[in-house]
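Hello Y.,

Per our agreement to keep a running log of every chain we model this quarter, I'm adding this entry. I've kept the format consistent with earlier entries: sequence first, then predicted structure.
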Amino acid sequence: MKRWVQRTTAGICAAVSLMGTALAADFTHCAEALQAMELFTGTKHGYELDRAPTRAEAAAMLVRLLGREEDAKSKTYRTPFRDVPKWAAPYVGWLYENKLTVGMSATKFGTAELCNAQQYATFLLRALGYAEGDGYTYKTALDYAKTLGVIDAVNYDSSKKFLRDQMVAMSYTALSREVKTGDGMLLDTLIAEDSIDIKKAAHTKAIFDNNNAYAELKNRKQDRSDTLTAAISAANGTELTYTGKIVRENGNLAAELRYADALIVGVYEKHGVQYLFTNGKTINHPVPAPNTIPVSAILDLTTKNDTYAYSFVPAVLNRTLKGAPLKQVSYSAKEENGSIGQQTARVQMDLTIGGKRDTYKIEMHVQPNEEQPSLFVPEGMEV
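Predicted structure for the entry above:
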């Protein structure tokens, strides 16, 4: 039984983490959403999300993201750069004309050189209306993009090579962020300018609007205590029940799930940093806890009867949980009295235990109770 519990821990972590939320990356769905809005075309070989982008490709991505490809191709722009091929000239020219790029030197754009996350973050900040000097410099662009929610723990990993995958995810996320003028999301601005067809953007806009509304609920700091229960079932009839609690106090959070009085999973947030306890250990690399669920992790999000219903791309959580075999992940939260009330997370996964492969389902519920909130952490853990 102990082995059974250990093997299903990955699914439990996924379900508990949705209450917090720490996810990671696989962004074909973002590329498809951008393509549906005519903001991304890929290459003759497809999306090619698994390779690094060149600066020329990043320039084309940014121009398309802003819905300006037709404008760029309809005119001839002069630039001082001597290394721009014919196909990239309209994009680089448009960016230069609109003060969104200055190149790598007075005569070099660096067309064939690889674009890194810092360079692309700078592009996106400029697209949102933030010029260098508006709170950041080139050296601090990544950090500033994080404060605006353009970059998060899902769409960027500093320990990995920057790929077209992350470029697409960061672009998609930028559309959901507010422009500097305060006139709403970048996506709304582009729709108002007729740069994006509102009908083609309807599905993505609904996801962004609903997620922003959910974020407002989540960010209403409210001291409370919730009861946490989880049921795991296998196709062979095996079932286990876990119990626990979630406590929020002074903007901090502690969530624990236990089986037979043994701590199985714990998620803790203090001073905006999240920690995860599992398999008897606390992760030694805390990451900033996001204010809401990052949009690049969401496959779909609908609202009905005051309930937010999320579905996610399993590959996102699989990478975060180091190869967990998740097949389906969903989460829902109900608005009650102006804050988040009942919550449900569902996970489905295939596991081989004792030489037998089976499908396991995990269903987790959060129910508010009347207990006085009192924050707690595991013994020996400093947060």
